[in-house]
Amino acid sequence: MQIRDFKLERYFAAYEFSVRHMLSASDCEALSLAELLALADAETRALWQGLKLSYTESQGHPLLRAEVAGIYHGITPDELLIAAPEELIFIAMNVLLAPGDHVIATFPGYQSLYEIAQAAGCTVTHWPLTPGPTGWQLDLDFLARSITPQTKLLVINFPHNPTGFLPTRSELDQIILLARRHGLTIFSDEMYRLLEYRPADRLPSIAELYERGIALSGLSKAFALPGLRIGWLATHDRDLLGRCLAFHDYTTLCASAPGEILGIIALRAKAHILARNLALIRDNAAAFATFCARHSSLVRWLPPRAGSVAFPQLRADLPVAQFVEAVLARKSVMILPGDVFEHTGNHFRVGLGRADFQQALGEVERCVEESGW
Q: Measuring CA to CA, which residue among 255, 372, 266, 273 is closest to residue 318?
C-alpha cells in the first residue's frame, strides 16, 4: 500500500517534544502511573502486582472487555475487540473496503479516517462541516446527494475532531436512516465521547443504534491515558468483528498486558477521571472564549459542544501559517494550523484538556500584543 504522509502526525513529530507548551493537544492532561494506581480497587491492585508480561488474549482481556461493555447499552463483551485506536482504524478499513468502493467521510478530520480508504483504491467524498452563525454545522442534504450505487461506507466522527461539533439526536437518526436505506456500513469514531459539556447532549453509540454500525473508542482522549494505547471496536455485527479479529493476527496480535490491567483500573474509576477532565476542559474553554472576546478582530470563537478540541478562525488577512510560525518561534508554543487537516478556511486547532493551557494562552496573547495583530 502506498499512502501519503500523515500531515498532523508529522507536524507533531517535529515539535511536540521540544516546545514549552502545546496549545493544540487533543488529549487531556495525562494521568501519571501513580495517580492511576491510586484509583485501583483490591482486585485490580492484585492483578497489577501479580502481572506476568506474557501474551494476552487476542480479542482483549475478558475483564477489560466487560468494563468496556459497561459504558454501552446492549453491547456484550463478545462484541468488542481491544487494540490501539489507530490500528483499529487500519484494520476496519482494510476489512470493510475494496478497490472501487465509494466512501463518504466527515471533513475536516483525522487523516487516517479517509486516507487509508484512498490508499486502498477507494473514492472518497468529503462531507464538510461549515461554520454557521452559532458554531459548526453539517448539511444532511449534501450527504443524501453524495450517496451512489458504489457507496459502501459512511465515516463519521462525533464529538468531532477538530471542531467539537456534536449533532442532535434527530440529526444522528436521520444519518442512520439514510445509511439503512442504502445498505451502508457506518464507521463512527467516538474517541471523544463521554466529554459532552452537558450530559443531556450525549448521543448513543452507533454500535447501540445501528445493526451495521461499528464504533471506535478508547482511553486516549476522555480518559487521559494515550500512553496505554488501549482502544476498542464495538459492533453487533459479529461477522464483521470476526474478520477484524482475524486481520488483527497480522498486526499486533494482542494488546499490551500492562496496558490492559491499567485500562481496567481506569474504566472502574471512570466517574472520577471524566469529572477531572471535564473540569479542565470547561475552565480552558471559558478562558479561550474570553481571549477571543478581547481579540474579536483577530479570531472568531466557534464554540464546541463536546470533546477536548476546538477550531477557531483567524481573520482573513493573517494567514494561519504565519500566525502559528510566529507563536512557535517567539514563545515556543505549538499550535496546529488548519492545513494539517487539509482545510482551507484559515482555522487552527486548540486543545482544551491540558493543565498548562492558560499559561500557554498567556504566551500567545503576549505574542499577539507584541506583533500588533
A: 372
